[in-house]
Amino acid sequence: MVNIKILNLYVGIGGNRKLWPNDKIEVTAIELNPKIAAIYKDFFPNDTVVVGDAHKYLLDHYAEFDFIWASPPCPSHSPIRKVFHNQNKPIYPDMKLYEEILFLRGYFKGKGVVENVISWYKPLILPYKFKHHYYWANFIISGKEKAFRNHYGGVEELSELKGFNISDYGGIDKEKTLRNCVEPLAGLEIFNLAFKEKQKRLI
């Protein structure tokens, strides 16, 4: 049987990955924080987990994969952070987001998607808007824009929303970790959109 080789970048604890099928896929997950990477590995023991720089890993290994998902850090693009700029030092928007969008468009032959928050500025490259987030993809993303549930709750509410119990893990900001987690239903819907035709052939 043919496996879909997936590169999952900036994975966190794996929100986008949670509802993907476990058969017929091979996932390589990249996460910079070793404590977060260890949690991901606990939840997805069959995935290959690499602790490292996702931006560099993409450049070095993109051609090895059929599907690439990237969720680069969003704080510098977030309208919420900007609204509270009196509490947060102004920072440059991190242009690695657009570097990865352009790189995948220019060089990657498989299916690719880059996910980020709806930015405080007009996006420099037109995205799809889906579930209150931006997605740049080389396939059509369509559906209801409404988010599934409250993204800004506390740890207990976010744990229920995202479907991850991380209460036994220490040394991390649990609320931030869960907030950074892509909603699993959004991850599944986009996966299915990317491989709708291919799944018919593989399964």
Question: What does the main sheet amount to?
Answer: 7 strands, mixed
Assign the CATH architecture: 3-Layer(aba) Sandwich
N- and C-termini, Cα separation: 9 Å
SSE order, one letter for each helix or strand: EEHEHEHHEEEHHH
Q: Which word captures the global form?
A: globular
Poorly predicted runs of 5 or more residues? 199-203
What is the radius of gyration computed over CA atoms, rounded to a whole number of angstroms? 16 Å
The CATH class is: Alpha Beta
Question: Which whole number gives the mean pLDDT?
Answer: 89
- Estimate the helix proportion, in percent: 25-40%
CATH overall fold name: Rossmann fold
Q: Indicate how many domains the architecture comprises.
A: 1
Total beta strand runs: 7
Oligomeric assembly = single chain
| Class of secondary structure makeup | alpha/beta
Number of helices: 7
How do the strands of the widest beta sheet line up side by side? 3-2-1-4-5-7-6
What is the percentage of strand-forming residues?
Answer: 15-25%
Question: Overview of this structure, please?
Answer:
There is one protein chain. By secondary structure, the chain is α/β, with parallel strands linked by helices. The protein has one domain: Rossmann fold (3-Layer(aba) Sandwich), CATH 3.40.50. It has 7 helices and 7 strands; from the N terminus they run ββαβαβααβββααα. The protein has helices at 34-43, 54-61, 79-83, 96-107, 155-162, 174-179, 184-202, and strands at 4-9, 25-31, 48-51, 67-70, 111-117, 128-130, 133-137. It has a 7-stranded mixed sheet with strand order 3-2-1-4-5-7-6, with helices on both faces. A hairpin with a 2-residue loop joins strand 6 and strand 7. The N and C termini lie close together (9 Å). Residues 199-203 have low confidence and may be disordered.
